[in-house]
TrEMBL record:
GO MF terms held by the record: aminopeptidase activity
Protein name (record): Aminopeptidase P family protein
UniProt cross-references to CDD domains, sorted A to Z: APP_MetAP (cd01066)
The species this protein was found in: Caldilineaceae bacterium SB0661_bin_32
Gene3D superfamilies xrefs: Creatinase/methionine aminopeptidase superfamily
UniProt keyword list: Aminopeptidase, Hydrolase, Protease
Length: 419
């Protein structure tokens, strides 16, 4: 397969081989049909993967080997030249299965990594269907194991350039957050009407002016709306922002210079008045303590050289909230992988939605964003339920021996607005 990009030779292949050997894996079998496995396409460096089934076998020892349909040779000519190796062609399904047997190890004790996650625990890497697994098992008798750790190593470890793109995006997010709260505060002091949607559009305009991309629009949520973690206002449905309200702003975006530029994603809270109610202050303090507990646990582990899986961080963070008496208000994991997509393919800080046993390795980035969501809570003097959701979110990059929090400063109290 001819080269189409100039690359440092054999870095990718050697990294994969090192991981396979360390984990006692016979190899990594990449499989795709019509783009259903974007991880395979990314590793192979293919923008288009054709219309027929293809396999790429990367053994712990030996050359990579390709198995593709005979009419798809031109499509795969553009694959990463570092993964060049013998090319096997098939026409019919019987020939495909026969040649697959000739490529893969015929050893029932061997272990083959594929984009599979036991019990669907890590959906981000569950990209192959049960039938493909059955075909591979029938061809080899080998055990199929998850490639999740391999995927993290190959996709979620960021380059220094990607980290810098994230830091610039983080600066934009913090500035947009400040502008949004200033906009709310000014409207309250002038007794002007203002809505969640108005604030959302202000943030969007700042994103456009900075030439950022963001996907769906940011969250601006008051009171009980913020108790729905993924609530977002729209032109058709939004609430006014009034004195005495709590306001949550969650915003995310990235630069557009390179496709693999990385997102920043932050959440801050404010109170529309001079002095937040005691219960709101109390809940925010618990959330901030939970956030800081997660950051401290990771920092200590990295400084000590201790391996730490994502689920253990989630446990520590959630325990702060539960021990404070607000466990029923936990509705999501502590954090998610962050990268070129807002939810990326590295370790999540999660033992709520799934149990993520991947470890925090140098180069990965993620959020720490504990929240407490209480839709029926009374927090004003009227005695009528207003409901609240309180979340605080920071972004973190793992380095060798240390943790970088890229979205400082920490929020330490609810921001008073309109006083």
């Amino acid at each position: 397969m001819p080269a189409h990009r100039k690359k440092e030779p054999f870095v990718k292949l050697q990294t994969i081989r090192n991981h396979l050997r360390q984990q006692n894996l016979a190899g990594w079998l990449l499989y795709d049909f019509r783009g259903q496995n974007p991880i395979a396409a990314s590793i192979a460096d293919l923008d288009f993967t054709g219309t027929r089934r293809w396999f790429l076998w990367i053994p712990a020892d030996g050359e990579p080997q390709w198995l593709i349909h005979s009419i798809e040779q031109a499509t795969l000519d553009k694959a990463d030249p570092e993964l060049s190796g013998p090319l096997h062609l098939y026409v019919g399904w019987q020939e495909m299965e026969e040649k697959l047997r000739s490529i893969l190890p015929q050893d029932p004790s061997s272990r083959i990594a594929m984009e599979y996650s036991p019990n669907g625990a890590i959906p981000y890497v569950s990209k192959i269907d049960a039938g493909a697994m059955e075909t591979v098992r029938a061809a080899t008798g080998a055990a199929i194991v998850s490639s999740a750790d391999l995927v993290q190593q190959m996709q979620a470890v960021l380059s220094s350039r990607q980290m810098e793109s994230h830091r610039r995006a983080a600066a934009h997010m913090l500035a947009a957050k400040d502008a949004a709260f200033a906009f709310i505060g000014q409207a309250l002091r002038r007794q002007q009407e203002i809505t969640e949607y108005d604030v959302q559009m202000l943030i969007v305009e700042r994103f456009r002016a900075a030439d950022l991309t963001w996907g769906h629009d940011p969250i601006v949520a008051v009171n009980g709306n913020a108790a729905v973690p993924h609530y977002a206002p729209s032109a058709q449905q939004h609430s006014p922002i009034r004195p005495g309200d709590l306001v949550l702003i969650d915003l995310w975006a990235k630069e557009t210079t390179n496709p693999d530029d990385c997102f920043a994603d932050i959440t801050w809270m404010a109170y529309c008045g001079a002095e937040p109610p005691p219960i709101a202050r109390r809940i925010f303090d618990v959330v901030a303590q939970a956030r800081d507990t997660g950051v401290s646990l990771i920092s200590q582990a990295l400084e000590a050289g201790t391996s730490l899986p994502g689920y253990e961080v989630d446990d520590a963070v959630s325990s702060v909230i539960t021990e404070a008496g607000f466990g029923e208000g936990i509705l999501h994991r502590t954090g998610h992988s962050l990268g070129p997509n807002i939810h990326w393919n590295g370790v999540n800080i999660d033992n709520v939605e799934t149990q993520d046993r991947r470890t925090l390795i140098p180069g990965v980035m993620f959020t720490i964003e504990p929240g407490i969501y209480l839709p029926q809570l009374d927090f004003d003097e009227s005695g009528q339920p207003k409901g609240l959701g309180i979340r605080s979110e920071v972004n973190c990059i793992v380095h060798d021996g240390r943790l970088e929090v890229t979205t400082l400063p920490y929020q330490t109290e609810l921001i008073p607005l309109g006083s």
